[in-house]
Amino acid sequence: MDVAALAGRLKTLAADLPLPSLGTADECFEAAQAELKEASRESNAEIGLHKLGAARERLAAARTRLSEAATALDDYLGAIGAGAAAPPAPATTGGRTAPPVPVDPRRWWTERVNELCDRTGAADPQRVPPTRLFNELLKAAGDGNADAYCKRLRDAGPETGVKLPGLAWPLVRTLAAEHLGRTPTARDVPALRDKCADKVRSLVPKAEPDHIGAALASACTLGRGGSGDAGDAARTAAVGPALVAALHRLPREGR
To answer: 218 Cβ partners below 8 Å, 6+ apart?
Structure first.
């Protein structure tokens, strides 16, 4: 391979480095982090801020390494007299430079809710109070309307959605106590989970029994005895109202 061909290959490689994509990803992380910080002021639930911060740190390290790689390629091309690598050309539409794609800070929430509910669809952002959202989700759950349940949760976005556990857990504990006829303990969690799992998963199909058990443990034992995997804010939000609706249908033991 001659120098010109090598230079051409290296310039193509440099142009393919995903630095712009990593920049966009960091903007999404930053927006999500800001929303979760705001939501954490009104919720006692662990919403994964530390995990999101760690993800941003790893992303920053990746961006640094890619920048170093791009600089090294430029230096090498300069050393062999081929000139620096050209920056990636902006996308064009009809001969004009296309505007940058706007960052959707809610996209991670939309995608995760769709995954949990085994649905598809874009979010239609709605600014609703947490109590209204909670009541709408309970109604959809009571009606067995999985489509409406997913849509309400998806449209609410993370800022409102992460406040749902704070509304759900006291009701979960109260309804579990009514069903058992006494205050629930960690030993009651497996039986309660088995009785509620089918109804919860009819609304949130990707909520595994362990996830439902962890939610029950968090509510019924005031945070003790859970699985420790509370970092998935969307999953915790999705399970809460569905669990309340499932417990509401359980008869009191001994009747």
So the answer is: 45, 165, 169, 226, 230
Tell me the C-alpha distance between 252 and 172, whole Å.
Answer: 14
Handedness of CA 100, 101, 106, 109 (dihedral sign): negative
C-alpha 31 chain-centroid distance: 13
For residues 59 and 63, give the distance between their C-alpha atoms in angstroms, rounded to a whole number.
Answer: 6
What does the H/E/C string look like for the chain?
A: CCHHHHHHHHHHHHHCCCHHHHHHHHHHHHHHHHHHHHHHCCCCCCCCHHHHHHHHHHHHHHHHHHHHHHHHHHHHHHHCCCCCCCCCCCCEECCEECCCCCCCCCHHHHHHHHHHHCCCCCCCCCCCCHHHHHHHHHHHHHHCCHHHHHHHHHHHHHHHHCCHHHHHHHHHHHHHHHHHCCCCCHHHHHHHHHHHHHHHHHHCCCCCHHHHHHHHHHHHCCCCCCCCCCCCHHHHHHHHHHHHHHHHCCCCCCC
Specify the pTM.
0.62
Q: Rounded to whole angstroms, what are the CA distances from 186 to 5, 33, 45, 152, 204?
A: 68, 32, 18, 31, 23
Where residue 83 falls (left for φ over 0; alpha for ψ -120 to 50; beta otherwise) is left
Of 63 and 145, the one with more pLDDT: 145
Q: Which residue is listed with tokens 């969690």?
A: 189
User: Distance between CA 151 and CA 250 in Å, rounded?
Assistant: 26
Q: Which residues of 155-166 are buried (b: 16+ CB within 10 A; e: fewer)?
A: bbbbbbbbbbbb
Tens of pLDDT, residue by residue over 67-92, are: 777 777 677 666 666 655 555 444 44
- With 80 as the cut, is the pLDDT of residue 244 above it? yes
